[in-house]
Design goal:
Blueprint: H1 3-25, H2 29-46, H3 51-68
Length: about 70
């Protein structure tokens, strides 16, 4: 991803956070969760993390938590 695109994506995050805060304070928490997912997707894109890598990382964390219980 070129620097211009990355900069534009970074600028989207505060807008999404403000929108999430607005809908949650307006009593629509489900919409807030959906916006949280959008924020996460933007961050994954910015850091060039694939959904497969995220899933693998999540599985490793789950296994580690199971072992420590």
């Amino acid at each position: 991803m070129d620097e211009f695109s990355a900069h534009r994506l970074r600028n989207v995050i505060p807008v999404l956070i403000a929108q999430r805060n607005a809908v949650v304070s307006g009593g629509v928490p489900l919409a807030g969760h959906l916006i949280d997912l959008a924020i996460m997707q933007v961050r994954l894109t910015l850091h060039d993390i694939s959904e497969e890598e995220l899933s693998e990382f999540s599985n490793l964390l789950s296994m580690d938590l199971e072992r420590s219980s």
